[in-house]
Design brief:
Blueprint: H1 3-24, H2 31-42, H3 45-58, H4 73-87, H5 90-113, H6 115-129, H7 132-172, H8 175-198, H9 206-217, H10 223-245
Helix pairs in contact: 1-2, 1-4, 1-7, 2-3, 2-4, 3-4, 3-5, 3-8, 4-5, 4-7, 5-8, 6-7, 9-10
Amino acid sequence: MSLFVQALLVSLIAWLGFLDKAFLHSFIYRPICIGPLVGLVMGNVSIGLEVGVAVELMFLAVVFVGVAIPPDEVLSSAIATAFACLAGSTQLGIATALPVAVIGQIFRQTRNTTIYEVTQRKVESAAARGDTRGIILWTTIIPSFVEYVLFGLPTFIAVYFGADYVQNLIDFIPEKMIAGIAAGGGLIGAVGVALLLSTIKSKQSWPYFLVGFFFASYLGVNMIGVAVVAAVCVALKYYGDKEKAV
């Protein structure tokens, strides 16, 4: 598969993520879903899973409150995973994730304060006239097009035209520095988990986190392996509660 086709497919995946976030909320837009999809397109599902899980941890406790727009996880996971696959380096993807997320945040803020101000007025005008087609146009079709222009197209440009720059950057930056940046990105994930844990009041949940910590820290199991362990724990808990209910 050519780089052009890969970049185009990655841009469509990012676009799908933004559409899901705006209309469906089926959680396809989460990094843990975007990462493997991009990895599949780029020919390295393993790196896609690793980057997706790492970026998911970064945004685990990030919520949209009022008009405050947090860093964007969709653009971050799509571009970071593509760069990681191109370079064959998970660390590079993790290091890229946060800066890209901030850029996505700026794009979303600009979109909300300019373009969506216009579309909102158009929707109100169409509703006042009883124009059903106008309402659909300005609430669905036009916003979908805007989402691709603002997020899908930049993703294509970043992946297609940025591949050589990424490789040159990797060759220039010392390996220890990339590892340090990736470690810093991992700390962001730790902060996200800590914020999430602070909201959990049930003491019954803590043993599961200790199990995950043991597997990751003492047995050296990677994030994908820990996710499998978590899925097993969830299944055991589910079937246990189901038997008690009978």
